Amino acid sequence: MIYQGNSGNWHCKIEFQKIPSIINFVESIPNRFIIFDKNVKLLYFNDYQSVNTFTLESSEQNKSFESYEKIISELVNCKIDRNVTIIAIGGGVVCDLAGFVASTYKRGTNLIFVPTTLLAMADAAIGGKNAVNINHVKNLVGTFRMPDRILISTEFLKTLEDDELINGMAEVIKISLVYDSFLFNELEKLLNLGQNISYKTNYLKDIIRQAIELKMNIVEQDYKDNGIRNILNFGHTVGHSIEAGYGISHGRSVAYGMKAAAYMSLEYKLITLDTYENIINILTNFGFILDFEFDSEILMNFILNDKKKKSGHIKEILLKDIGKYEFRNISITDYRKFLNDLC
Ligand SMILES: NC(=O)c1ccc[n+]([C@@H]2O[C@H](COP(=O)([O-])OP(=O)(O)OC[C@H]3O[C@@H](n4cnc5c(N)ncnc54)[C@H](O)[C@@H]3O)[C@@H](O)[C@H]2O)c1
C-alpha cells in the first residue's frame, strides 16, 4: 500500500512481511541507525550487533527530551550523517521518539518504522505524528514527519502481553465507530468466532490492515490535523481525564471514554438504544471493563483544564450511527450531567 499527501509533500509505503524478511531488508540498508525497544531487542534481535543502535526501555517517562538528547548524542558519537535511515523497532513510544529524532537530526533524515505492538501497528506508527513528553505533559513537543516505509509483521504480537493487545484494540474499535461500520461488523464477526480467537494474530492481520487504510484515508485528507483528523480523538476527552486522574491505561481509559461519548449520542437521540448496546457489547467482549466508579468532578476538572474547552462548552465527537460522526459543542452543564449519570 502506498499513500501520499495531496501536495506531494510526503509518501509512505506500508507492507506486511515476515520477521526474517524485515530483518533482511533492514540489514540491506547500509547507512542505518536502529532505535530498539529493549524487550523487542531481547526477544527478537538478541544476537544483533549493537553498532549504530540505541536501545530504549519503553515507558511514558522515557518518551522524554532526555531520551531524545541521548539518542542525538549517540548519533553524533557514531558520526552519523544526514543520509542515514533511522529505523524504529518497537511500540508507539519508540516510534514517536524515532520520528522526532528523524525529523530534527541534521534537519531531517530517512525514517522507517517496524511497529511491534497492536497499538503501534494500527495507530501510533500510522499518520506521521510524533512527540515527546516534557514536564509530565504528554506529547508537548513534536512534529509531523511521515515515515518513508512501515514494515509490519503480526508475528511480533505473539509475545505481546494480553493487556497490551487489549490496549491496542481500543484504537481499532474507535476508528470503526467513527468512520467505518464495515470494520465494526468485521470485529463483531471476530468475536463470534469465540473468546480466545479474537486476539489470535492471524485474524488480527486483516483487522490491522483495515484500520490502517481508514486512518491513512483520513490523514490523506487532513495531514496537519485541522479538520476531519480530529475524529481520531473520539472517546479521548473523557478517556484522557480517566488516564490522568486514575492512572488507568490509555486503551482502557479510551474505551470508557467511547462509552461516555456513545451515551451522550444516545441522550441527544443521535443513536438508538440498540446501537448503544452494540457498542457496549463490542467493548465488553474485547475485554474492556466499563463499570468503573469514577468521581465525575475529578473527571470534569481534568476536562475543563483540557484544550478542548472553548468558552463555556466542550467540543465533543459524537456518533450518528456506527461509522458516522458528528461534532457537537456540549454545554458544561450538560457534560457534567452526563458524567454524573455514568459515574
Ligand atoms: N503518534 C501517534 O499518532 C500516536 C498515536 C497513538 C499513540 N501514540 C503513542 O504511543 C505510545 C504507546 O504505544 P504502545 O502502546 O505501543 O506502548 P509501548 O511502546 O510503551 O509498548 C508497550 C510495551 O510493550 C512492549 N513490547 C513492544 N513490542 C513487544 C512485543 N512484540 N512483544 C513483547 N513486548 C513488546 C514494550 O517493551 C512495552 O513494555 C504512547 O506514548 C502514545 O502517546 C502515538
First and last CA, distance: 43 Å
Strand percentage? 15-25%
Rg for CA atoms? 20 Å
Global outline: globular
| Category from helices, strands and their pairing | alpha/beta
DSSP E strands, number = 12
Bound molecules: nicotinamide-adenine-dinucleotide
Low-confidence parts, pLDDT < 50 over ≥5 residues? none
Strand order of the largest sheet: 1-2-9-6-5-3-4
Instruction: State the helicity in percent bands.
Output: 40-55%
Residue-averaged pLDDT, rounded? Answer: 93
User: What composes the largest sheet?
Assistant: 7 strands, mixed
Strand-and-helix sequence, N→C? EEHEHEHEHEHEEEHHHHHHHEEEH
Number of helices: 13
Structure description:
The protein has 343 residues and is an alpha/beta fold. Helix content is 48%, strand content 18%. The protein contains 13 helices and twelve strands. Helix 7 packs antiparallel against helix 8 and helix 9 packs across helix 10. The longest helix has 21 residues, at 201-221. The structure holds nicotinamide-adenine-dinucleotide.
